[in-house]
Description:
553 residues; six-stranded mixed β-sheet; globular; binds zinc ion
Amino acid sequence: MLAKEFPLMKLWKMVVASTLVASTAMFAQGRGGGAGGGQAPPPLNLPADTPRITQLKTEAAAEVEKLKEFSQQMVDQIFSYGELGFQEFETSKYLVTVLKNNGFTVEEGVAGIPTAFMATWGNGKPVIALGSDIDGIPQSSQKPGVAYREPFIEGAPGHGEGHNSGQAVNITAAIVLKKIMEREKIGGTIRIWPGVAEELIGTKAYYIRAGLFKDVDVALFTHVGRNLSVSWGDGGGTGLVSVLYSFKGESAHAAGAPWRGRSALDGVELMNIGWNYRREHLPLSQRSHYVIRDGGDQPNVVPPTASVWYYFRQVTYPGIKEMWAIGDQIAAGAAMMSSTTLLPTRVLGSAWPRHFNRAIAEVTQANIATVGMPTWTEDDQAFARAVQKELGANQSGLTTRVGGLQGPTDPSTNTGGGSDDIGDISWNVPTVTLSYPSNIPGLPGHNWADGMAMATPIAHKGVTAGAKVQAMTLVDLLLKPEVITASWDYFKNVQTRAQKYEPLIRPQDQPAIELNKEIMAKYREQMRPYYFDPTKYKTYLEQLGIKYPVIKK
Ligand SMILES: [Zn+2]
């Protein structure tokens, strides 16, 4: 999912509280007041950096810079695996090895998900969990550094979202901090975890259910973006529930005795027709889409089974539940019309709408301002403009200035958009998502074009900039306990005052770990020869013999 691509509806609330000690009532005044727009509220009264903190941040950023080849290798390695959600076996094995080699203890297969893990280093409080997604996009196989469509393998998956880059941000920052913490005898625990199957919004609610964040003080999430930025409050975009509707009919000879058959596919098609009529009468902020997973076997056999997979998206949790109930009702109606049976539904994934923490966002933003954007070369800009031209987008090139702190989106004027199951974590623990500038603006998302920059200097430099911010924010959280106190004050007294977390997954739902298995089985052996070999080549572009940037003449 694209996490932060919908800046248009970012409207500041008229929050009048000017200090951290502001009462709940003062915070509450600014919420739910409609689309006011208006002034950015004054920042919270968080402690300034002491000379020691400033010096440690400077050191941390310099150490991240020294590790840029290490970060680049991780970005390239994961890009070359191009694995889909729940099947990130090479990626997971690689990350676990890197983490173990750097002194982390790793618990694998957490929450009943084979490719998930929780890596831990350090002792005691605070516990800071660094996460980022690792899965790819179907049919987005694409050579990097080439500004036109050129797949490695037609039809194969690839990193057409850029999820190959975020772990490098976190792991580089963690390794740098670990060294500083050891030398300076700073207490605290660093956790590293992967967003498995984020494109299926398939795991983070299960991480919460398994208690993986129970003792976590702060979650720092990273997601590939076009800028270095962070936000707080209700995010743009939506949350969602992903539901599989399966119908059961009766097979018959489709020509010899069609009257004996009951078509499960009729159930699916009638459900889709019902939904497509009903869609007109849903709030404008909704998004809904489906694919038919089972449409029968062959035309001369009346389909005895069929299934359709829906994403129901809305900007609030109650809104998602309402859409889901309408979907269930339409499915029941379709079964009745087709004289088929609607089998028990399966939730294949879910995501709460995102809400990010104000105190953590403010310290992150200060570090963003210090780090600034990477220095793009003329080659980087020429490549970006060529990709934009190829896609018919505005040829603006790469972003050159960091964004300001983004405040809350008003749910009543939020026009919807993508989702990310980091939402579930953000409603359980103070969380922010750091967006780092590793991709090209103006692309469609979930597309081969979104992979073009993801193993080039654009991605590499964006990751190093992100890792610097992440390392500096870790210094803040480890040495300023007031920031963590402030983050929980906001979490308890503002964010969750009126809205408590209830998982969208039901007790009977389990992680859909079988998804994408067949696709990966089909392509994995063809993809293997393209895996990055850092023992032979410095970069993946070098291994592929690509003279970046390759641009149509
Ligand atoms: Zn994503």
